[in-house]
Design a protein that fits this description.
The chain is an alpha/beta fold and 379 residues long. Helix content is 45%, strand content 10%. The protein has 16 helices and 10 strands. The protein has helices at 7-17, 20-27, 34-41, 89-99, 114-121, 134-146, 165-169, 178-189, 192-200, 219-230, 237-246, 259-267, 289-300, 315-323, 333-342, 344-365; strands at residues 63-65, 68-70, 74-76, 105-106, 125-128, 151-155, 250-256, 272-275, 305-308, 328-331. The strands form 2 sheets. An 8-stranded parallel sheet has the order 3-10-9-8-7-6-5-4. Strands 1-2 form a two-stranded antiparallel ribbon. Strand 8, helix 13 and strand 9 form a beta-alpha-beta unit. The protein is globular, with a radius of gyration of 20 Å. Bound molecules: flavin mononucleotide. Residues 25-26, 39, 77-80, 107-109, 127, 155, 254, 276, 278-279, 309-312, 330-334 line the site of flavin mononucleotide (FMN).
Length: 379
């Protein structure tokens, strides 16, 4: 491939560069992967009105989400293990996001912790998984706040991990058998560029944000065993209220698909929700983020900010989501493909593709400002 021109091109490049263990981790969804596929396919059924006699020449993408000015209504979704896809991957992605005038969520399961990322690229947003140990949680929230982070996403849809068969097949979830170890070693050795750049020189062996709670020396298998016991499985609005009390910044609840859950989240003090089925990685029968969006947006009204993710692969998808009631979109795999394929320049290029596609879409839809997007634009 000479020059990637789409997210799909970056997907193919990333697949070539990464060991199968990691590309299957990124690509995989739960069970039959139908939720994963629906996320992408359902966008295709949403049609915008083509309005070309409206005299639109210049388009503004600037917006403000949760008190933060952004150059476009796109934020990099939290993705675990990003520092395994590229050397200090979270830092590279945050730099690209900053250069594009947007921001990223640093995942609880990041390799580079939020202190390293914010030191290199300025404040970013943080994604939280709830651990049972409230003292640890309090200390973590204080550390995150001290970096200048103003937006926290509390992810509520991973009380139990989804049944991702690709991960089991590759031994991602802690297969310590001899055969499994040989398979993973061969997988790494057959991707020498990644082995040299990331595995040997990228220090990808510890979960930065978890370092204070878990002794990283035990490796990934030990981490998963620890996480299974440490992670809170059942979640209620009381947990949201607890975080609300202990987090002075904006709080969004990520992993909401149902309007009733959305109401509960906002009643408990959330400033917003991310309509998301976790990229199709959790409940295989869940409806897609884009299908769930209108009902959630209606349930919340103007009481809180509605963001969405899942299957967003183009700037046109972002416009579709905004027409259905979202204030902005998180993109997940789209930026990860760019990072795995080309590092920071890859993420920067993916974001530039999104920017250009949004401008083109809005121009052809007769809308000159992203803040004016409404249901009227739907065909
Ligand atoms: C490889 C991978 C790792 C992820 N890790 C996290 C995570 O650590 N925390 C989280 O809240 N969501 C995580 N997600 C979900 C994303 O934040 C986001 O909801 C999803 O990727 C959106 O779908 P898309 O990939 O189709 O854009 C992950 C998704 C993928 C693909």
């Amino acid at each position: 491939m000479t020059r990637p021109v789409s997210v799909e091109d970056y997907r193919r490049l990333a697949r070539r560069r990464l060991p199968r263990l990691l590309s299957d981790y990124i690509e995989g969804g739960a069970l039959s992967e139908s939720a994963l596929n629906r996320n992408i396919d359902d966008f295709k059924d949403i049609h915008l009105r083509q309005r070309v006699l409206t005299g639109v020449e210049h388009v503004s993408l600037k917006t403000n989400i949760l008190g933060v000015d952004l150059a476009m209504p796109v934020v990099l979704a939290p993705i675990g293990l990003t520092g395994m896809f590229a050397r200090r991957g979270e830092v590279q992605a945050a730099r690209a996001a900053k250069a594009a005038g947007i921001t990223m969520f640093n995942s609880s399961m990041a390799i580079c912790d939020i202190r390293e990322v914010s030191k290199a690229a300025g404040p970013v947003w943080y994604q939280l998984y709830l651990m049972r140990d409230r003292l640890h949680m309090k200390a973590l929230l204080e550390r995150v706040w001290a970096t200048g982070c103003t937006v926290l996403a509390f992810t509520v849809d991973v009380g139990v991990p989804g049944e991702r068969q690709r991960e089991h097949r590759r031994g991602m979830t802690g297969d310590l058998s001899f055969g499994g170890q040989v398979m993973r070693a061969l997988d790494g050795l057959s991707h020498p560029q990644w082995l040299w750049d990331v595995y040997l020189h990228g220090r990808p062996h510890s979960f930065g944000n978890m370092a204070e709670a878990f002794d990283n020396d035990g490796g990934f298998a030990a981490f998963w065993t620890w996480a299974r016991g440490a992670m809170q499985v059942a979640m209620t609005p009381d947990d949201i209220a607890w975080i609300r009390e202990n987090w002075p910044g904006k709080l969004v609840i990520k992993g909401i698909i149902d309007p009733e859950d959305a109401r509960r989240a906002v009643d408990a003090g959330a400033d917003g929700v991310v309509v998301s089925n976790h990229g199709g990685r959790q409940l295989d029968s869940a409806i897609s983020g884009i299908k769930a969006l209108p009902a959630v947006a209606e349930a919340i009204g103007d009481r809180a900010t509605v963001l969405m993710d899942g299957g967003v692969r183009t700037g046109e998808d972002v416009v579709r989501a905004l027409a259905l009631g979202a204030k902005g979109c998180l993109i997940g795999r789209a930026w990860v493909y760019g990072l795995a394929a080309r590092g920071e320049p890859g993420v920067a290029h993916v974001l530039e593709l999104f920017r250009k596609q949004m401008v083109t879409t809005l121009t052809l839809s007769g809308c000159d400002d992203v803040n004016k997007i409404s249901r009227d634009m739907l065909a």
